[in-house]
Every structure is written in structure tokens, then in C-alpha cells.
Amino acid sequence: MRERWNLVAAEFAHHLPYTIISTLIAMAGVWAFGTQLLAAGRAEQLLEQGRASFHLFHPLHICLSAIATTSLFWRYRHSAVQAAWVGAWGTVLPCGLSDYVFPYIGGRLLGEPMELHMCLVQEPQLFFSFLGLGILGGFWAEKRLRGSHLFSHGAHVFVSSGASLLYLISFGFTSWMSDVQAIFPVFAIIVLAVWVPCCISDIVVPVATAHKGHAHAC
């Protein structure tokens, strides 16, 4: 047990640099696009496109998270029912924390009038269709693609960075694009929103439930 949680701690440390890089790339991309619209006086269009893009990145996040969690569990314990169960719960809670809860709390702490929008409740057909697809993809990928969890986890981190940032944008938190003092707080919010839940989903949940040692995630 101690060896297993030492592995989890090592994985958290290992994935922090990747989270930081993904966050910087996401912020740079959104800043380059968003500042052009703000300079042209099209702030409302920025919010609309932020919402639309969030509803693309969020389902992708769900799918990739389910693939990573399911495939890593399935790699070490061949129980289809348990793998699907772990893949589902290892996706629903962390993705909610990453894409809704952390950005919502972070925005509120920084004085923004954020709204808690939960696709799990408000667009369940979107949420659960991509969840199911991700779980099925986890079984297929681990069987046919060696190390599939490596790719899905890396893509998961990047997409999660985009989804968390777009959540902030979609509710009007655009001040960081023009206020230098707001850049680091937003960066810190996104890093926490991605690093902790994604590692819980892709590493902690499957490693803790597979009941086999040496489940190295990446």
C-alpha cells in the first residue's frame, strides 16, 4: 500500500510540468484570439464563441478522461464491469471539478460574477454519450494500442486546460487579457483545475482500485 501511494505522489510531481506547459499553450492561444475580438469591440462574440468552444472541449475532456482511466484499470485488472465503473466515476467527479468547480470558485475569488454551469445536469445527453464512448474506447485502445493511456492522458491534460480556461471566458472573465496583474492568478487557477483532478482521474483512481502494484501511469 505504501509503495502504491509513493507511486501516486511521484506521478503527481511528474505531471506538474506537463500541466504547466499545457496551461501556457492554452492561455497563449486564447489570448491571441480573444484580444483581437476585444480590440475590435466584439466582446459579446468572444463570450459566445467561448461558450461554444467550451461545449466542444468539455465533451472531449470527458471522453479522453474515460479512455485514460478505463484503459489503465483494464491493463492491470480484466474485469469489464469494474473497469467501466471505475472509468465512469473516475471521470464524472474529476471532470466536474476541473471544468466547472475549480474555475467557478477561482473566478468568484477573483471578484468575477461567475455562474455554475454543469453539463452533467443541463446537457446530460452530451455528457453521458461522450462518457460511454470514452469507456468503450478505453477497452479498445488498451487492447490494440500499446501504451494508449500515455497518449490519452497527455491529450486529456491539454484539452482539460482549454476547457477550464474557456469556462472562465464563457462567463465574461476576460480582464486577464488586458490586465497583467490578473494573468498569474488565472494561470494558477487553471493549473490547479487541471493538475489535481486529472491526476486523480488518470492515476489515483485506477491505481488505487486495480489492487496490483507497479501500475505506472506514464
Structure summarized in a few sentences:
The chain has 218 residues and is an all-alpha fold.
Could you explain the architecture of this structure?
- The structure is a single chain.
- With 218 residues, the protein is mainly α.
- The chain has one domain.
- Helix content is 83%, strand content 0%.
- It contains 7 helices and no strands.
- It has helices spanning 2-39, 43-76, 80-109, 119-122, 124-144, 148-170, 180-210.
- It is globular and about 55 Å long.
- The two termini are 19 Å apart.
- Residues 212-218 have low confidence and may be disordered.
Topology summary:
Layout: H1 2-39, H2 43-76, H3 80-109, H4 119-122, H5 124-144, H6 148-170, H7 180-210
Helix pairs in contact: 1-6, 1-7, 2-3, 2-5, 2-6, 2-7, 3-5, 3-6, 3-7, 6-7
